[in-house]
Amino acid sequence: MNELNSFIKKEFRHILRDKRALLILFAMPVVLVILFGYAITNDIKDAKIAILDNAHDELSIGLTNKLVSSGYFIQEVSLHTNKELQEVFRDGKIKLAVVFPNRFAESYYHDNKVTIQLIADASDLNSAVALTNYASSIIQDYQKEIVKAPVQKPLFETTVKMLYNKELKGVYMFVPGVLALILMLIACMMTAVSLAREKETGTMRVITVSPLSPMTIIIGKVVPYLVISFIDTLIILVLSVFIFGMPIKGSFLLLFLVCLVFLFAATSLGIMISAFSSTQQIALIVSIVILFLPTILLSGFIYPIENMPLALQIVCQISPAKWFIEAIKSVMIKGTGFVDVWLQLTMLTVMIIIFVRVSIVRFRKTIA
Amino acid sequence: MLPVVELIVLVYAANNDMKNISLGIVDRDHTTTSQMIVNRLTASNYFILNDFTTSAKEAFQNLESGKTDIIIEIPEAFEKDIYNNNHPRMAITVNAINGTIAGLASSYAGNILSGYAAELGVTLAQGETITQRSIKITSSNWFNPNLDYKSLMLPGVLAILITIMSIMLSALNIVREKEMGTIEQLNVTPISKLQFIIGKLFPFLIVGIFQLTLGLLVSVFLYNLGIQGSILLLYGVVSVYLLAVLGIGFLISTVSDNQVQAMFITLFFMIIFVLLSGLFTSTDSMPVWAQKINIINPTAYLVDIIRRVVLKGATFADIKSQFTAIVILGVCVNSLMFWRYKKIS
Amino acid sequence: MEITIVTDNLTKTFGAFTAVDHISFEVQKGEIFGFLGANGAGKTTAIRILCGLLHPTSGKAEVAGFDVFKHTEKIKKNIGYMSQKFSLYEDLTIRENISFYSTVYGLSDYQIKEKTEQLLTRLQLHSEADKLVHSLPLGWKQKLAFSLALIHDPKIVFLDEPTGGVDPITRRQFWDLIYETADEGTTVFVTTHYMDEAEYCDRISIMVDGKIEALDTPDILKSQFKAATMDEVFYKLARGTSTK
Q: Contact partners of C by the rule of 3+ C-beta pairs under 8 A?
């Protein structure tokens, strides 16, 4: 026990001695969370559109006004020819164009049928799909308005209830994601690099020749970084609650448990990475390459996992961030209890066991 | 090798297409009408029926556990109420944690249902001619007509992987020599500072170009990505971009005391560069100040340029302003780096 | 004399490659035993086995009276180890390094205090005790690392190229420390690349391709190989195998 204490104390000394690294460690989450809490969203607001109005009649002008007043769109340019259309798109100024045909109103009232064309710049797919959808629904609304016929009550109606997130706020999606990304990188990389440094400087050799058991070494390495990243967790949680209005509906205890288990998984992953790298540089590069993009893409942070091909969905299962994001959303937003996150916690625990086992086996082999 | 594997795998991950929304139905009516409604919803391609029950409680449990994303409840005596003109109500409940998806899912469902209601109305009116006027909406997606996420993500993920590798290697480079003490040895040699820095930049530039080539080969042969614009232009842009990014990396390297600091500073900028680059979420959705940050974000320019060149076939004239921005950024960071480096040695 | 290290046909194979090939030798208490050989001759593997880090494939070995198969943990408590890299934490102070390594070897708080005082006095580092190791000159780092390897009064200390990159005067001073330690009864097991250093050892063994090709005092080896210096002995042995 005394050995372990001393090891942990030593590790904290390393951390606290490097004041600049410490500053970055605590400032980084703050800046990033604030930045991304506001910036990362797929909400459509003030999207720039072009109108090619070949009709200039009451209906086309009415609809244009309706589109612009919706708050989603800003009319950037009015076009007159199809050729101009090509140009503005190539230019990249606008993401959506609405094309009204000749004699728009006339066709509508006399032929009872008219076609309006929406052209989206699908080189930015995320917004292309969303813009087309928003524009379509505005056009449909407009159509209902201009049907002057006596409003017949529909045969049946629907009421929509948005659960957990009435205002459809983007932060509900992104706070858990950014939390997972930052913690994963900090906890995992710090641990990986600190062990790799001992290998590089040769202190690892002395430690392994000493009577310290591999388990003591691993726990001694995990605990300090667990503590540091847990402080980061608290900072991020406080920010997300007070600045972004994230709710914490579930119990604090469960929330902390989920975070701790995840951090444990991240630090033990760091240990495993360092077990396979001989220098700090390798440890850092490997951590970033296997963590950075996969944590963004394969965790359900930005892209829903259900939309992925089956093979990739299976790959997602081994991403600790995926389970963490699920659990944290359940506890914070849905307010579920332990029974609803036991699967996530179990999966993370299984990962911890695997990471630690593999590391110990690997340590025995290589450092010896 | 790992980055290539990532390129191959990760392009599949990005898909915001609204298909396969997991649907739960609570049918307490059990009539042909309720059956028709279910058919309409599942025939739409948007929804997959994952839960069919008569118990609202069970349905909610499934929504809570994440098995379903949306529940539609058909009340008891629904059909009867329609024919008796009681105007029954159907409840749609959506898991709205992902606001964007929730909004779209509920509007899809709402449209399908109201469409069905209108149709039913016509059938019931029997012969009474109602003129149905309609505005038909046709939508077309230029530059990527099949809404293919892969061809969109490929160039973007490629750009980001090149960025990550270059900035990391360069950021660790000088600080590593500082830590090991070998930098002193280099400083006493007659190599001038400028030569030294160019000597450092060049190998990494070659590595970056090599990665680009590898990535493009994978994209073209494995994914049949058609490159609309000039490949030469692409290489030119990436080279200049790499010089800028390597400059940032070396600058970080010269201001850091050790590899850990260098890495965390790099990470900080990398996260910002990548998440604001517009690859994963559209830059248009970002607030104005975030778009302002993108003025000094080389990755945002690169993602933009690569998309234009690869997908839209843009020429140099089309991307001139973005290109100039990268050049200015590159010149700035590299001179800053040079100045810093002179000071430390 | 008491024997502290004994090996009997000790062998270690990695697949088809035999790194250590039936080596047998004994080392006595208080002896300075030089363990020489070119890179890749199997030195490192042999040391790892003796430190209890690696199990041998066959043969026997006892270190400080403990079997390298069964009692590796006990071996670890009774040996000290120092490598070329000095294995100090550069971002910790001297005092912090001392206290860390002491607890690693299970010393009590009281012992740590006592040892720290002793060590600082002997190395005349009192005024520097709270400075970072980073700021120490190389020679001092080396002495500190050596003292730390001895902090738990081990029966044997393994020195793995302890004088790499140090100037001749410092090296000379360092060997004085080694003699002192040996005189106090600690066995010193040392590897080195410097052939002049080999002459300081009581006995030396020279490993070539996993086998011990020569083992005796420096003087006897020199006359046996009709060489004026150990350097010559070494080259004769190495050449002998390359033409074989």
A: A
